[in-house]
Amino acid sequence: MFDSLLAKLAVRQMSALEAIPEQISKAFALLLTGKLKAFFATVLSVFQLFGVIISDTPGPIIGEEINLGNYSLVFSDEFKGDTLDSNVWQDVPDLGTGEIFDKSMISLDGENLIISTEYLENGPQGAGWYTAGIENTDAYSNFKPGCYYECRCIVPSAKGMWSAFWMMTSGQKRYRNGRHEEYTEIDVMESFYYGQKHQNSTINTVHKYQPETDNFKSEIVGKYRIDKDVYKEYVTYGVLWTENEFIFYIDGKESGRTSNGATTDPAFMLLTCQVKTNGVEHPEVLDNAENTFPAKFIVDYVRVYKAN
Questions:
Q1: Contact 281, 161 (CB under 8 A)
Q2: Which residue stretches of the chain are H helix?
Q3: Can you give the CATH number for the domain in which 177 is found?
Q4: Which in 110, 131, 213, 235 has the greatest CB count within 10 A?
Q5: Is the same domain home to 179 and 251?
Q6: Looking only at Cα atoms, what is the longest distance across the chain?
Q7: Which SS3 state, helix, strand or coil, does residue 125 take?
C-alpha cells in the first residue's frame, strides 16, 4: 500500500518527502546548540514539506546557496537608459494564445525594464488587452550548459496575470521555421498566484517537446513560497543548467532540480506577460479594481554566468 502511494506522488512531492529527514536532523542540531530562532524556522519548514506531500501546497525554499565563486559574468543587461537594446532583444512572436503583444507596452525608466499590461479601447491594434514579451535575438540565442541564468524582478500585482522569466532551446526557433525538431522549455519563474491563498509563490516547470508524438513531456519541479512580498519587492530567480539537469534557485538558494529535458542544445531567454488562456482573457483579470492597471512586470536585470 505504501509503495502504491509513493507511486502516485509527483516528483516535487517526492523531493519534499526525501527532504524531511534531513530537516528533522537539522532541527535537533539547532535545538542542541541553542539556536532557537533557526530551530523553529526549520520545524516550520518540516510542516510545510508535509503540506507539499499531502495537499501539494507551495513548499519552503530549503536548499543550499549557490556559489558563483568559480563563475564569470558573460552576459548582463541592467536595463539602464530609456531604450531596449535591439541587438540583444526582439519581440516575442505569436505564442498561439491570442495575446496582443505590442511594443507600446515596453518601457525603461532608467533603472528597470517595465512590461505593462492593460485594456486599451483605442490601442494600436484595436480594442483589447495589451501586454508584451521580449526574447533574445539570434545573435544572443547560443547560451549553453555550464551557465547560471538569473533575473531580478517584481511581478505584476493583478489577478489573472501570468508573468514569466523562461528559456527555450534553439530547436524551438527551428520549429517555428517549419522544422519538426525537439526542444526544451525551462520556466525559471512563473507568477500567476496573485489574489490566491498562496499568492507570494512561484512555480518552476520544464517541458520537453517530442516531435515523434507531437506532445510535451512536462514536469512541475516545484511550487515555492517566498518570504517576501513579490509584488513590491525584488526577488532573484535563477537556474543552473548542466549537461544532466536544471537546478533552480530563488534569491540564491536552491529550490528544486530535474533531469527532465536535459540537453546540450543552445538556448535563448524570454520575459513575457500574458492575460489569456486558450485564446480568451483569464476571467479573474476582470475582478481587479479599476486602478489596478496598467499592471507592471518590473525587471531590474538579466545576467548569465559561465563556469570558469
A1: no
A2: 2-8, 11-32, 36-55, 171-176
A3: 2.60.120.200
A4: 131
A5: yes
A6: 66
A7: coil
User: Which residue segment(s) compose the domain that 22 sits in?
Assistant: 2-55
CA-CA-CA-CA torsion sign (289, 294, 300, 305): positive
Give 4's contacts (C-beta < 8 A, 6+ positions apart).
none
Q: Is 61 a domain residue?
A: no
Highest mean pLDDT out of 30-34, 170-174, 238-242: 238-242
Q: Residue 94 falls within a domain, yes or no? A: yes
Q: Which amino acid is at 96?
A: G
Query: CA–CA separation, 147 vs 253, rounded Å?
Result: 16
- pTM for the complete prediction? 0.84
Beta bridge partners of 129: 119
pLDDT at 176 over 60: yes
Q: Are residues 40 and 97 in the same domain?
A: no
Exposure pattern of 181-220 as b/e (b: 16+ CB <10 Å)? bbbbbbbbbbbbbbeeeebbbbbbbbbbbeeeeeeeeebb
CB 40 within 8 A of CB 28: no
pLDDT band, very low/low/confident/very high, at 26 (cuts 50, 70, 90): low
Burial class from Cβ neighbours inside 10 Å (0-12, 13-18, 19+) for residue 5 reads exposed
Q: How many domains does the chain have?
A: 2
Q: How far apart are CA 62 and CA 84, in angstroms?
A: 36
30, 33, 173: which is closest to 90 by C-alpha? 173
Q: Whole-angstrom Cα distance, residue 198 to residue 57?
A: 8
| 187 and 291 share one domain | yes
**187: DSSP letter:** E
Task: Please count the residues of the chain.
Answer: 308
d(Cα 125, Cα 91) in Å, to the nearest integer?
15
